[in-house]
């Protein structure tokens, strides 16, 4: 990828002498309104978006998303949360450091109340270890429930419950 160099051909002439750091902090300035789209992206969008995308890829790597066909990691949610929390242009809200998840962001909470999301399946929420424990416990339970003595006991319990329900129903008549 070719690196972008500031030159008279690809910048706004009247702001050429201004330092890049000074311009980077003001995306709403007159300079931002008059520069080319390429320079706007290079000076205002990419310095914020590229670290967020790198962090997203690192998080996806930690969640082993590149190894599985299906996973619970949502890249758009991560980017939204990361950009909201690390927004250098909005310093009005001091509560940003205290926000721990996406649902604590006010405008997202309002949007989710209007348009709720489907719940994420447990298979995507659980780690591999948790899923293995669930499967093993279910399998052990199945092996125990299939034993003849246990089947007989369960059948007796079912009949006992039916009998008790009939007694209660007759008492209230």
Furnish the topology, listing elements before pairings.
Layout: H1 20-24, H2 30-34, H3 37-62, H4 75-85, H5 106-114, H6 122-125, H7 128-145, H8 148-171
Helix pairs in contact: 3-4
Mind describing the biggest β-sheet? none
Give the class from helix and strand content and strand pairing.
mainly alpha
Order of helices and strands: HHHHHHHH
**End-to-end Cα distance:** 84 Å
Instruction: Give the % helix.
Output: 55-70%
State the low-pLDDT regions, or none. Answer: 1-6, 10-20
Strand content: under 5%
| Count of DSSP H/I helices | 8
Pfam family, one: IQ
InterPro entries: IQ_motif_EF-hand-BS, IQCK
Protein name: IQ domain-containing protein isoform 1
Organism: Schistosoma japonicum (Blood fluke)
Structural description of this entry:
This is IQ domain-containing protein isoform 1. The structure is a single chain. By secondary structure, this protein is mainly α. It has a domain at 126-173. The protein has helices at 20-24, 30-34, 37-62, 75-85, 106-114, 122-125, 128-145, 148-171. The N and C termini lie far apart (84 Å).
Summarize the structure.
InterPro entries: IQ_motif_EF-hand-BS, IQCK. This protein has 173 residues and is an all-alpha fold. It contains 8 helices and no strands.
């Amino acid at each position: 990828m070719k690196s972008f160099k500031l030159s008279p051909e690809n910048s706004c002439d009247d702001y050429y002498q201004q330092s890049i750091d000074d311009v980077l902090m003001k995306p709403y300035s007159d300079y931002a309104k008059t520069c080319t789209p390429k320079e706007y992206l290079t000076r205002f969008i990419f310095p914020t978006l590229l670290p967020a995308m790198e962090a997203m890829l690192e998080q996806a790597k930690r969640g082993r998303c590149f190894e599985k066909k299906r996973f619970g990691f949502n890249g758009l949610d991560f980017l939204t949360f990361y950009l909201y929390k690390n927004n250098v242009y909005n310093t009005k809200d001091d509560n940003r450091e205290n926000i721990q998840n996406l649902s604590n962001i006010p405008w997202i909470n309002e949007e989710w109340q209007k348009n709720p999301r489907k719940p994420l399946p447990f298979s995507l929420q659980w780690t591999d270890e948790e899923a293995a424990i669930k499967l093993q416990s279910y399998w052990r339970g199945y092996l125990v429930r299939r034993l003849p003595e246990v089947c007989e006991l369960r059948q007796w319990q079912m009949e006992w419950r039916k009998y008790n329900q009939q007694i209660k129903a007759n008492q209230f008549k």
